[in-house]
Amino acid sequence: MSESEIYNLPGPSEEGLPIKMLNDRILVNLDDGEGERRSSGGILIPATAQLGKRLAWAEVVAAGPNVRAMEVGDQVLFNPEDRYEVEVRGSEYIILRERDIHAVASQRLEEGSTGLYL
């Protein structure tokens, strides 16, 4: 077990055991952004608006040893309906499998690429 596979997640209380993700599991932090938001055209969209089926972006905070296409700090695109929610030290996270990810956005991707793996 290498140190790169063990994650100490932040939270209100730093007490507790370190976390190690297993197999192809990914732990992501979803910025819900619940509340009002603006469209690119400047239209105010209320929090109660129905969006239908829409994919969501989240930041990878931990990855299992068999995850190949993403690293901690990457942004990933996934279907929010296919998820498992977990609370760790008072903070909410989502657990996904690598195969449930539709795209990866990261600064580390090679030059000339779009920044997304689709």
Q: What is the H level of CATH, i.e. the homologous superfamily?
A: GroES chaperonin
Number of distinct helices = 0
Please tell me the CATH architecture by its name. Roll
The percentage helix is under 10%
What is the CATH topology assignment? 10 Kd Chaperonin, Protein Cpn10, Chain O
| Class computed from helices, strands and strand pairing | mainly beta
N- to C-terminal separation?
Answer: 31 Å
Task: Order the strands across the largest sheet as they lie in space.
Answer: 8-9-3-6-7-10
Domain count = 1
Broad CATH class: Mainly Beta
> Shape from CA axes?
globular
Radius of gyration: 16 Å
Order of helices and strands: EEEEEEEEEE
Provide the low-confidence segments as ranges: none
Beta-strand percent range? 35-45%
How many E strands?
10
What does the largest sheet look like? 6 strands, antiparallel
Name the average pLDDT: 77
Could you please describe the fold and organization of this structure?
The chain is globular and about 45 Å long. A hairpin with a 2-residue loop joins strand 8 and strand 9. 0% of the residues lie in helices and 36% in strands. It has strands at 6-7, 19-20, 25-29, 37-38, 44-45, 56-63, 75-78, 84-88, 91-97, 101-105. The chain is an all-beta fold. The mean pLDDT is 77. A 6-stranded antiparallel beta sheet has the order 8-9-3-6-7-10, with no helix packed on it. It has a single domain, classed as 10 Kd Chaperonin, Protein Cpn10, Chain O, CATH 2.30.33.40.
